[in-house]
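Incident review: delayed structure delivery

Summary: a single-chain prediction request sat in the queue longer than the usual turnaround. Root cause was a stuck worker, restarted by the on-call engineer. No data loss occurred. The affected request and its eventual output are reproduced below so the record is complete for anyone auditing the incident later.

Affected input:
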Amino acid sequence: MTVKTETAESTFKMEDNQLDTSIDDAKWLLGGVATLGFIVIGLGLFASTLAA
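Output delivered after worker restart:
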């Protein structure tokens, strides 16, 4: 029979750490998508001024 070494407190700490990491990753992803969007919009505006 194996002994369970994880306590409820360590489980909660691990879950909090995973949640914080997920939120941080989501912020980075959102920032990257927003940056790419601005680049695409800027290139589109630049191209439209050249075409006109």
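Verification: The first helix runs from residue 8 to 51.
Action items: add queue-age alerting; document worker restart procedure.
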